[in-house]
Every structure is written in C-alpha cells, then in structure tokens.
Task: structure prediction
Amino acid sequence: MIIPFSSPPTLSSASRFGEDVSEGEDFYMNDGEDFEAERATITSPGESITSARAFMRGHGTYVDSDEVVASVAGIIERVNKLVTVRALRTRYNPEVGDLVIGRITEVRIVALACAIENNERRKVQPRRWKVDANARQDAVLMLSSVNLPGGVQRRKLESDELQMRSFFEEGDLLVAEVQAFFADGAMSLHTRSLKYGKLRNGQLVSVPPILIRRLKSHFCSLPSGVDLILGLNGYIWISKHVQDNEKEGEEGFDAEAVYSNQNDDIDDATRTAIARVSNIIRVLASRSVPITDAIVLEAYEWAVERDSDAKDLLLGDVADALIAAVTTKDELTEQW
Amino acid sequence: MSSRIEILNEGGFRSDGRRQYELREMTFDSTAQAGADGSARVAHGLTEVLVSVFGPREARVRAQTLHDRASIHVEATIAPFSSTSDRRRRGRGDKRTLELAATIKATFEPVVQTSLYPRSQIDIFVHVLQQDGGVLQASINATTVALVNAGVPLADYVCAVTGGVHAAAPMLDLTSLEENDLPHVTVASMPRSGHLTLVSMETRLHVDRFEEILRLAGEAGPVIHKEMRAVVRQRTKDLLDGMGKGLRESNPAEAMIEDE
Result:
C-alpha cells in the first residue's frame, strides 16, 4: 500500500538539527566525474548512482526512473558498464569452486517402506543432507557427492542410503566445495576429495564472509601444530595439525577414520595454540581486518612473544595493541 | 494529572521544552548485537528500541517458505520494565504486541526486495526497551537501520515520525504524555520517492487537520533520513577502514603458505 505523496521541502520551523532539509535533494546524486573516480565510494539504499541509460545495473542496485539506484549500503564497484554495490556485511554469496565449511542441519532419508510404496517419490527425493553454510539458504549435500567407504569410485547402494547418519549426522561439521547451483539459488556441495570431509580435533570461529579473501590455498598450517581452514563463507576451522602421511584415505579409504566422531588426543600445548589462534581471529574480525594466513601467523608470533594468555587477547587494550602491531608491520613490509 | 501540565504553553513550548515541530534527540547504535546479521538500537528521546535482523536464511518452518520470494517474519516484545504506567508482562499472544509486529511487517514488505531471495526467510526481532511515546516510529526507524546493517536490499530507507494536533496546532514526535491527550498519526515515508509505506492512526482526528499533519510528517521524514544515512555511512566507512589495514594478501612472500 504505497500512497504517492509529494512533499514540498520546506519545514518552516527549524528542527533540532538546524540544517535546511531541502538540501537533501543534492546529496543523492554523484555527478558523472565523481563516479569515474578510482576510489571506494560509499553509498546506501535509495541513493542514485548513475544513469541507467549509460550503465547496466548489477547486484545491490535497482533501476528507478532511468537511474541506477543502490539498494544496499556498501561500496560502488564498476566493471566497464556494469555497476554493482557490494555490501560490507551480508550473508555469504556462493560461487562454484568455493571452499566452505558447514554444519549439517538435516538428514533426509525417505524410509525404505515408504519408498517401495511410492516409487515416484523416491525419484524426486534423492538422499541428501542439508548444510548450514551461512548462506541465504541451506546448502545441499547429495549422497552421490560424498566419498563412500571402500574406494573412491563405486556405485552407491541401498545400504549406503540407510546408513547416511553413520557418515554425517545432524550437527556434524564438514569442509566441502561448492559444486553447482539449483534453480532457486541454493548451492550443492561435494566432498569428493581427500581434502574435504568431516571435521574434528578443533574449534569453529565464525567471521563476516567479506573478511575471507580468495587465497592460493585455504588450508594452512601454522608452525605451532595448528591447522587452519579458511572457509569462504566466513567459517574458520582451527584444529590440531595432522601429518600429511597420517591422513586417512587414499587407496584403502578408511571410512572408520574419515567419518569418525572421536577426537584424537590433543596435548595441552596444542590446545593453548588452538585457543590463541581462535582468539586472534576473533580480534581481527572484531576490528574488521581481513583474515589471511599471513596476518594470523604474524599476530600469533606477536602473541607468543608477549607470552600472553590466550584469553587476555580478547581484552580491549591487548586487542588494540595486537591490531596495531600487525597492521603497522604491514606497512613496513610493504615499503620494502 | 496530565491536565495540569500544559501540552503547549503560550510561549509555544511543549511540556519537555521543545517547539511544535522540533524532534527529540535521536541516537543510533549499530553495534548492539554481534550475533545478529544486523542490529540497531535506536532512541528517540526516552523511547528506546533494539532490533535484530537475521537472514536471509533458510526458513525454519517449511510451510512458510514462498517459492518466489523471501518471507518476512517479525516478532515484537515489549519489556515489562519499559513503561512506568503499564508495568505488566506481555506474553507472545498479546494483542498489542502482535499488532506492532504486524504493522512493522506491512511497512517493510513493499520496501525489502524479497524477490531476490526465494525460499528464504528474514527474521526481524523488535525489543521495546523504554517507552515514552512513538514506539511504532522508533521500531520502524530501528528496523530500517538494522536491515541496512544486515545488507538486506531495500528500495529506500523508511523514516517514521508521529504527528499530533493540539487545539489546531500540529506538532511532531509526541511523548507519551502528549500521545495520551492528543489525536495522533504515525507516518512512514521513503525520502527518495516521497511515497508513504504506512499511515497509522489509532485515535479520531478531524478530517480538516489530517492533511496538515500528514504533510508535516512527510516533511519530517527527510530530517530523520539524514540522521540515519549519516550513521550508516559512518559505519560503512569504519568497516572499510578496518579492511584497508589488512590489504596485503597479494604478497605471498611468507613461506608459511603450504599447498596441500
């Protein structure tokens, strides 16, 4: 129910904010020159960006009366004639090939009896897990896109369908890759690589997805015996280091170990290191600093040098000192 | 009691020292709830509302999913300590709370670009922490800022303000003292187009006065918009500054990156 309403911009008696209201007319429009400038231009919903005749509208914009208008608060980005606005805080926008970390929210098994009764339903309801991956809809992990026990290449059997919960249960964490999209925009994941699969021996930290950049590798190991997986959806997994040659899988593919719910023994030093790294990541995220393996490593070395407790890192002044140390060092290295 | 306090005295001042068209002080806090996708605590004078936005996310109730757009779900709670006059616990089924939620939902449905998120759900939780008139207005303004903070696409800001009339003298942004005595209207406008998404009136108002108040409230919208926009821009800028600090990942000289 939108009622057109024309407001002559004259508020006779001054408001507390004193300024002239009619000035509002101007601050919407960025003129052409401004728009061409190569710097981060901040915009917010309802602000005109440019003419819709000369430019195409991209994400975060809409067209209203021949103008491209922002619909989210963020920075304007332009590629040739395509104008987009990128929001700085939003849910994860998946792309094919992205590495994500997720949590199983639902296991969908149609009972065998039901399947026999209604053959059709079996076809439309493939066996799948639903995974929360910080996106606008839960992701889907098909039974056919996980590694099944007993060899990488094999057909899935009825028995696999019945024991889906022995692979992944509700609440389990996993690392996977975005494989494809469905028509409604939901993503389909796969774990058909030995790098992917169930996560254990560690801790999850969640940060705004924009802080995770695409890196050469999202699996990093820090020298203190800690492995780090930076999911592009803003979920970060910090765990005990596993030697490459100790990794389960390869030829034999030990399903027992890959889908195990049991943590290994983790000694105190590793536990401290994990806590330290996760607090460092929390601090970086709270100050909106992009998280890369390099910056985490630098911050970790700083924290070890100061010999501070893991929990002290979260205190305001220590956190500020950490940010200052990590970011000023950056500028120095940049100069060299 | 209120009959002894003058709503508008001869000098043209209201009971709290404001002029007729003067708004109360507004404060916006975007850091209120870290766990939410977006949140805002907004105060208009002594009225204070906290709004948290979650989503767009997977709909928790499958029956509620819409196949072509996101559904908006609003839940309001009024804290029992929020008001001095009416200190009672309002449960989930309370009519007034439900109406507040329904009004907020109706206000934002034409503004949020829900068609971008089919089958998702956007949850808006409104907590009224203090009330001193203009609860609906504060809730709508807080919801706008919270939605913007959550990165939910909106056609425009929604700016709400309450207008009332006292003996032929219109006034804006009523306190609860004024709200109890005067006929009043809450108007939510979108400053870019000048369209109104909500006109809500619970009292009787003479039709001759209505247009005047409506126009006045429409003019006050841009003033509130300016405040909200400044807050949103400042927050965006702060986030951007933080991100500039770590912009260095294009320097993979560090040997610690191990490809697996």
Q: What stands out?
A: The mean pLDDT of chain B is 88. Residues 26-238 of chain B form a domain with the Ribosomal Protein S5; domain 2 fold (CATH 3.30.230.70). DSSP finds four helices and nine strands in chain B.
